[in-house]
Amino acid sequence: MIGRILGFYFARRFAHAVAVIFLSCVTLIVLVDFLEMARRTADREQVTVSLLALLTIYRAPAFTEQLLPFAVLFGGMVTFVILSRRLELVVARAVGLSVWQFITPPVLVAFLVGVFATCVFNPVSADFKERANQIEGDIFASGGGTPGLTQSKKDFWIRQQSVDGQSIIQAQSSRQGGRVLSGVVIFEFDPSGNFMERVEAKSATLGDGAWILTGAKVLVPGLDLASYDTYLIATKLDPKQIQDSLIAPETVSFWQLPSAIRSAEQSGFGAEKYRLQLQSLLAKPFLLVAMVLIAAVVGLRVFRFGGVGQTILGGVLAGFLLYVGTKLAEDLGEAGIVHPVAAAWFPAVTGILLGALILLHREDG
After folding, report:
1. Residue 33 CA to chain centroid, in angstroms?
2. Which of 120, 267, 306, 343 gives 329 a disulfide partner, CB atoms 3.0 to 4.6 angstroms apart?
3. Across-strand partners of 232?
4. pLDDT of 278 over the 80 cut
């Protein structure tokens, strides 16, 4: 009974610390993002304060998803350090609780928070992110571009199979869900993989079984450059496949990622980014558990060995390194160098194993 009461007490203290840190950081992020968006849209007369506030709210969940592991780490460190300095953990040991018994409640809370973040918060974040992108596109396109145009920071590529063979499409921008492309370059290959022609066009519109190119210039090896007002390239792609393949993983809900992966594979696109996003979301509860174990390594050392500042700094550094390692593994996984499963799960599993081993060494010898 005493162990259960103390377990609920430790869990409540941990949840309260994480919530305070998380909400404080979210408030700061929202304020800074609002001011930044106000600066960027200062020359847009149609942008009102209410629209800016709405845009900031839509953008906030995507930022806070990245913040959650740090909130859990710092919340755990604050909880264990305070419990240690107030000698509450000494009392817990005196009634017969081991270190594993009083870190289990925070671990369970962190795991449940991770499950909630993956299953509930991520779909909301993805939907809000998509709405934010639409509002930003309308705002900045109205400054002289085409409404609804989504400019990419770099060119994107599309690979397709058709009755004529394989084609690789490079485009500078897209609109209408990928149905209309601008700044198009197409490399066509026959069914045997031999290069056939290179086509440049001002725009390409997805029609019924073909891309309709406008202002096309066609270069065939051994022939002179030919120009066409309209030029057709066969395709088996449909609008949904194009749209799904151009959508950023961050704007796809956790529950929609499996269908996005299947759609990307069927249309010949690389699905690594969606697989990585899915595995990262599945691994998130375990990453939060790793953060709690790191916090326990820091907090449980304080009341016996002193050196609060150095120990906390070491915990922050360990959490930061784990986060950097997570991002590095994700970059390698997205580039196809590392399998998405390994890239997503390695940091979380490594953090849990290292935290558990250090606690075993310190507490059980």
Report:
1. 18
2. 343
3. 212
4. yes
Provide the pairing of β-strand 210-219 with 150-162.
Answer: unpaired
Give, for 277, the enclosing helix (H) or strand (E). helix 272-305
* pTM recorded for the entire structure: 0.73
- pLDDT tens digits, one per residue of 107-144: 999 999 999 999 999 999 988 887 887 787 677 654 44
The full DSSP string for 93-134 is HHTT--HHHHHHHHHHHHHHHHHHIIIIIHHHHHHHHHHHHH
Are 291 and 356 in contact, with CB atoms under 8 Å apart? no
Beta bridge mates, 156 = 171
Which residues have CB under 8 Å from 338's CB, separation 6+?
329, 332
Spatial contact of 138 and 147, defined as CB atoms under 8 Å apart: yes
pLDDT score of 238 more than 60: yes
User: Whole-angstrom Cα distance, residue 312 to residue 152?
Assistant: 41
